Amino acid sequence: MLFVNYPKCSTCRKAKKWLEEHNMEFESRHIIDDNPTAEELRQWWEISGLPLKRFFNTSGMKYRELKLKDKLPYMSEDEQLDLLATDGMLVKRPVLVDGDTVLVGFKIKEWEEKLL
Length: 116
Hints:
The protein has 116 residues and is α+β, with helices and mostly antiparallel strands. 41% of the residues lie in helices and 14% in strands. The protein is built from six helices and four strands; from the N terminus they run βαβααααββα. Strands 2-1-3-4 form a four-stranded mixed beta sheet, sandwiched between helices. A hairpin with a 2-residue loop joins strand 3 and strand 4 (101-104). The chain is globular. It starts with a strand and ends with a helix.
């Protein structure tokens, strides 16, 4: 299981604690030091079945600085994935990848349904 996170993020810390409390083994990956590639993001997005916009950290400063709310609707999927791969702060976190399961963000109910 791959846990892609930003250690200073309170939601990521809660998710990590949840994983540890449920004795789940995972590899932790710092999203800034080792940002996901466009290829990884494409694979995770396809597995997740989620809209691509869900992979964007829409509440982040970088998202607002780049005015992505207005730009995303006009960008192709490839352009969006390439953009996400440029900066880990643009990616919604945490991202949990476990085989054919990809979870974006931390919603306890969803994690319980998919992982327990």
